[in-house]
Amino acid sequence: MKTVYACFTTDVIHEGHLNVIRTAQKYGRVMIGVMSDEAMVKFDRFPTLLCEERQELFRKLPEVDEVVVQNSVSYKENLLKYRPDYVIHGDNWQTNAQKVIRDEVVDILAEWGGQLIEVPYTRNEEVKRIDTKMREQLAMPEFRRKRLKQLLHLRPIVKALEVHSGITALIAEKTIVEHAGELDQFDAMWISSLCDSTAKGKPDIELVDMSSRMRTIDDVMDVSTKPIILDGDTGGLIEHFVYNVRTLERMGVSAVIIEDKTGLKKNSLFGTEVEQTQDSIENFCRKIQAGKNVQLSDDFMIIARIESLILEQGMEDALQRAFAYTKAGADGIMIHSRRKEPDEIFTFCDEFRKQDALTPIIVVPTSYNTVTEEELAQHGINIVIYANQLTRSAFPAMQNAAIDILKNHRAKEADDRCMSISAILNLIHEL
Ligand code: SPV
Ligand code: MG
Fold it and tell me: What is the Cα–Cα distance from 235 to 241, expressed in whole angstroms?
């Protein structure tokens, strides 16, 4: 009897999936690969069911003979292990980001004369409704908030991209790339104080107040599902911080990062070029504790950001603060540096990890930008934040378009470098 293999990443089995499975049955015994959570979060929807629960969905189907786990986005490992006669899939992967995976399947099957069967993708109203619901329920606060903690277990390093508006959130949400035969995407979004302020033409000095920052969070949440890490600046007065923790948690934000500065905050990348004051360890610990005391769920994280290296207070001070903040209840430590090389960040992480193997470490490699995610992970870093690249890349593009229009007295030259109106319209999802 021939074997037919199909792989699924779904939490709900609908008519489209059943159509694939029933077609498979005509060719032989049906083996279903259920993609592992680790693989799924790399390129597809975040699962709302555990991998075991997803396997159970398929085991219950009378048409299915065997269910196995597929541990990677690539089919390679399972194809070589089970050597099926056929692989079956909807024809939608001929044109989307999964094409590279499809082409690899064709090549591998050819080794033993196997065949790929592609069935027309089912696009009826009911299937569309289920797909949309599956995706959009991930935007609900109870799903979104806990997702950062879940990702910390699923990803070797969680990658967050800066967003400051609905459109930048859509870019973070939808950008998927194929690289070296693998698909990849961002895991989370960083709402930067620098970029949120810059988008409003204001300096990064806590002038854009919390009400306005929350309006930005709302815009981002409206069009995305990925978890949000908020740059909470200094956290402000302890008496105010506790209210903000409650609000952020209720909204579905996953983490707030507060930095151990006090008084008029300036952007860290100024370093010691401007006057900035570091908070005392005692006071900052009280702020962390106060925040932890008022939060209601186990999902929300309060992350302490250490400015000792930025303010040239030395490694000892940075480490002393890291242990004190962790003891005070911080759910993670962000260590910042504005050196060109990652050396001092690596020294900090190596020393911290000698005494604390678990507390997540977060970094922002803006100035030491040659460092790779793999190197960061080797030093025990859990979250990397790309804190300002969307803002810094958009600004020169906009400025050049303005210059072109002024120089040419028309828009043609600028238009040639612009995204088409139809591409913009497709990016925006209509309900
Ligand atoms: C931000 O993005 O606002 C940050 C990171 O706080 S940095 O600009 O490097 O200080
Ligand atoms: Mg900031």
Answer: 6
Neighbours of ion ligand 2 (CB under 5 A): 193-194, 231
Q: Distance between CA atoms of 75 and 56, rounded to whole angstroms?
A: 21
Report residue 396 CA to chain centroid gap: 25
Q: How far apart are CA 246 and CA 310, in angstroms?
A: 30
3-class secondary-structure state, position 237? coil
Question: What pLDDT does 302 receive?
Answer: 98
Beta-ladder partners of 176: 185
**Which ligand 1 atom is the nearest neighbour of the CA of 162?**
2
Q: What is the dihedral of CA 220, 333, 293, 324, to 10 degrees?
A: -160
What CA–CA distance (Å, rounded) separates 194 from 284? 22
Query: Is position 231 annotated as part of the catalytic site?
Result: no
The verdict on the CB of residue 231 being under 6 Å from ligand 1 is: yes
> Could you tell me if the CB of 390 is within 6 A of ligand 1?
no
Task: Give the closest residue (by CA) to ligand 1 atom 5.
Answer: 387
Q: Looking at the whole model, is its pTM more than 0.85?
A: yes
Task: Give the pLDDT score at 272.
Answer: 85
Which of 189, 192, 390, when mutated, tests ligand 1's pocket best, judged by the most ligand atoms within 8 Å of its CB? 192
Band the pLDDT of 45: cuts 50, 70, 90: confident
Ligand 1, residue 267: give the atom nearest the CA.
10
Residue 387 CA: nearest ligand 1 atom is 2
Using alpha carbons only, give the angle 154, 35, 172 rounded to the nearest 5 degrees. Answer: 55
Q: Which of 11, 37, 187, 204 is catalytic?
A: 204
Is the CB–ligand 1 distance for residue 192 below 6 Å?
Answer: yes
Distance of CA 315 to the CA centre of its chain: 30
Q: Tell me the pLDDT band of 367, cut-offs 50, 70 and 90.
A: very high
Give the residue carrying structure tokens 């569309």. Answer: 128
Residues 331 and 426: their CA atoms lie apart, in Å, by: 39
Cβ atoms 83, 2 nearer than 8 A: no
